[in-house]
Every structure is written in structure tokens, then in C-alpha cells.
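Example record used in the benchmark description.
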Amino acid sequence: MKKKVEINYAILLPVFLLCILGLLSLYVALKLDNKSISYIQNALIKQTIWLFLGLAIALICSFLSPKFLWKLAPYAYVACVIILILLLKYYDQNLFVQTGAKNWFNFGGITFQPTEIVKIGFILILAKIATQRAEYSTIKQDMLFLFKMFLAFLPIAILLLLQNDFGTLLVFISIFIFIFLLSGA
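Model output (C-alpha cells):
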């Protein structure tokens, strides 16, 4: 039996508008930074390609079953931690000089911030932990649940601190708090 893909149209418009706003913000920031028109065009084209790549990945993921995602979650999480460890050694030297953070890879002139992918793995593992929590639980069970979530958060937090990327760490803290609150513990 084929899985029927349901499209949440109520979320498509805000996502589309957010993408347009992101491209507009990128344009304005580069224009105010006195970048050339060709530089701005290249940056906007790259960003648009990333947007379409993200859309394609989201479309592919819509066909995946939740059971498959739960099985994938631990592997995705471990892969994300490994990526963050690799980032400590193979970060973009030029961006490190500019920003002081070791949070970008550079592959042949294409810079890539892997924490964007790590967020997905982190959300998956926290969601898996949260769904395993009993609906009606004791204080002891809730404390164990919180401990499991904290164990998933700790390696990522340490690696982000070692990368000197406090801003991204704040995003991960927000994700942690949000999923914890949604869990009902």
C-alpha cells in the first residue's frame, strides 16, 4: 500500500514568504556592504539553489515513514556529532580569521555551515526520546527523560563551544527547551 502524502498548505505560504524575505535580506545586506552587482547575483543564485535543494529534500522526506525516521534518528545523531568533531580540524581558515568561529567547511570555494544539517539530526533524536516518554509518567520517569535529552544535548553543546559558536549554541538550547516543553514532562 502506498503512503499518501498530505501537503499542509497552511504552512507553504509562510515558508515561501520566509524564503523571499531571506533572499531580500541577503540582497540588502550585500548591497549595504558595497558588494558588486555580480557578487550579489552570484550570492543570490547560490542561495536560491540551496532553497531548491532544501525543497527537494523536504519533498523526499515527506515520503518517508515515521518508523523509518525513528530508526534513522540515532544514526543521524551520531553522524552529526562526527561532523562537528571533523569541523574542529577541517574548518574554513579564512572564515575563522573573519569570524573567530570554526563553524564552516569549504569545499572548492563552496562554503557550508554543517550545523544546519546537525539541527535536523538533533531534532530527530530529541523527538525520538520525547515520543518514547510515557504520557502519564512519574517524577522519576520525567527526570530520566530529561537526563536522556540532556545526554543528547551535551556533546553538541561542548563541540559548539569548542568551535566558538555561541550563537548557534543558543539555537540548540532553544530547540532543546521547545521539545522539552512540547513533551509535556
